[in-house]
Amino acid sequence: MVFSVAVIGSGVMGAGIAQVAATAGHVVKLYDIRPEAVNKAIEDVRKNLQRFVGKNRLSAEVAEAAASRVQPAARIQELAGVKLAIEAVVEDLAVKKRLFAELEQVVDEDCILATNTSSLSITAIASDLKRPARIAGMHFFNPAPLMELVEVISGLTTDPSSAELVAQTAASWGKTPVHVKSAPGFIVNRVARPFYGEALRLLSERAASPASIDAIMRDSGGFRMGPFELMDLIGNDVNFAVTNSVFEAFFGDPRFAPSLIQQELVHAGFLGRKSGRGFFEYGPNAIPPQPMNEPPASAPPSIMLNDGDRFAQALQQRLNSSAILLVPNVTKKDSDYSVTFGDTTLAITDGRTATQRAHQMNIPGLVLVDLALDYKKATRLAIAKAHQCSDLAYASAVGLFQAAGYSVTRMRDLPGLAVMRTLAMLINEASDAVNQGICSIDAVDAAMEKGVNYPLGPFAWADKIGAPTVHAVLANLAAYYGEDRYRISPLIQELLWSGRTFHSKL
Question: Does residue 69 belong to any structural domain of this protein?
């Protein structure tokens, strides 16, 4: 059934939502307290639809029909008769509550009310309504016509049928809806905090430059953008405000602590792309920042590979055509080390520093390797050298990686390096959300893949590397820092003890 839809608020999000609904065949009544903003939004929708025609995403006929279905509403009373009203106004609780109180006087009793809030409590928004059961969150992601995800949020008073109608509508519009309870940050803005937070923590401890950390997360971790370039794109003021909002909503939980580095950028007006400077500089004369690459080094003549290690297997495949002699280590398949040669030992990070692990295992020539999404396809590796490791042993490791086709970025010897540390914290936060009944495992994976373009959902990646690895990294981070920030979710501990995977919980 194609019903009429109201969109209240004609900014970028409101116009985008109106375009999505109109393209799906709905008549859309677009209302704003500023009539001139409605006219501009309708013109923007028409232009955007024409761009879709130019990119062969829509036919000219479909685009023209969609544009004609977006109709201006001069007064809120003109929204009477719609079956779904979507609010996309300023992110202010008082403003939204006043708007929905007005809407309640205008629309029919069976009209579903939806809010596009990205952070406010659905329960609080609905608290003064006569019929709070019909309001749900319908959180689109910018740009709404392109981003697939819609978070469907239920407050304490939301009727399940209201949330389900919102989800079915989103699905009929070609979106991927995920159900979530009203809780700070919902799914995406909560689970994504460690992507920024751990990068900022690493920067504060001088682990590597922002450009280097970005390159590691892209070229090794498989993320579309690194955390610093993404914060600059979002706007450091916006990203900092969201972090503060989630931090305060969780009563100061240290997992969400804002960064003094980002606060200083905001104070200076270095907001990112929109201001011409953030973590990086922008503009016609700006020089693109480059990651740090280790200089060329000589590879060892032969190496011994641990047959049971996934990184060793990837190295073997990448080195098969080289002159390096590859010797399988068939006697120590259960070893947690990947490769040995001369005085050098290579191992994947487990959340301890290289120096700590070298001391505890009495292996001075230890070089740690960061996690990669796929070691066979990655173009970059992040590594850290134990203080006990000689410069010659380290150089041999660099030469080996370069012979395998990797660019090599050296990080300061900090626990978990970049990708492994960030991923463990993403999984930890996602696990707490599921453990608290906020959402499902499938909802988290869909949200993070469709909403922020992660290469894998946190739980899909967790099952790939295993709960024991995630638990070990978090436990070692917690031991190193002694902070509640790195406490381990009960769900991860349960899976460790039971030997089950995350998706076996479905």
Answer: yes
- Choosing from 4, 10, 116, 118, the catalytic residue is 118
Q: Which residue has the tokens 């922008």?
A: 282
Residue 150 placed within a domain: yes
Q: How far apart are the first and last CA of the chain?
A: 32
Tokens of residue 479, six digits: 């031991």
Catalytic residue among 4, 10, 116, 139: 139
Active-site pick, 116, 154, 162, 189: 189
Active site residue 151: yes
Q: Token pair for residue 446?
A: 């869909």
pLDDT of residue 1: 59
pLDDT at position 308: 79
Distance CA 366, CA 349 (A): 11
Instruction: Please give the distance of CA 166 from its chain centroid, rounded to a whole number.
Output: 24
Same domain for 428 and 494, yes or no, is yes
- Mean pLDDT, residues 457-486: 96
Active-site residue 118, yes or no? yes
What backbone torsions phi and psi does residue 315 show, to the nearest 5 degrees?
-60, -45
Give the count of domains, the chain.
3
Which residues does 61 contact at the CB level (< 8 Å), separation at least 6?
none
Domain-located, residue 295: no
d(CA 342, CA 355): 19
Q: Which long-range contacts (CB under 8 A, 24 or more apart) does 368-371 make?
A: 368/413, 368/417, 369/311, 369/338, 370/216, 370/220, 370/411, 370/417, 370/418, 370/419, 370/420, 371/220, 371/221, 371/417, 371/419, 371/420, 371/423, 371/465
Are residue 16 and residue 149 in the same domain, yes or no?
Answer: yes
Task: State the alpha helices, DSSP H only, in 436-481.
Answer: 441-452, 458-465, 467-481
Out of 104, 151, 198, 229, the active site residue is 151
pLDDT tens-digit map of 398-451: 999 999 999 999 999 999 999 999 999 999 999 999 999 999 999 999 999 999
**Are 458 and 191 spatial neighbours (Cβ–Cβ below 8 Å)?**
yes
What are the angstrom distances between the C-alpha of 113 and each of 133, 144, 215, 381? Answer: 9, 18, 43, 49
At 376, which CATH number?
3.30.750.190
Instruction: Tell whether the model's pLDDT for residue 293 goes beyond 90.
Output: yes
Secondary element (H or E) of residue 71: strand 70-73
**Average pLDDT in the 12-38 region?**
95
How far apart CA 95 and CA 79 sit, in angstroms, is 18
Same domain, 313 and 214: no
Residues with Cβ within 8 Å of 164's Cβ and at least 6 positions away in sequence, in order, are none
Q: What share of the chain is helix, strand, coil (3-state, %, to 5)?
A: 50, 15, 40
Q: Which residues, other chains included, contact 9 with Cβ-Cβ below 8 Å and sequence gap of 6+?
A: 32, 87, 88, 89, 90, 116
Residues 460 and 504 in one domain: yes
Strands of the sheet containing 366-369, edge to edge, are: 325-329, 302-306, 339-341, 344-348, 366-369, 380-385, 407-410
**pTM (2 decimals)?**
0.94
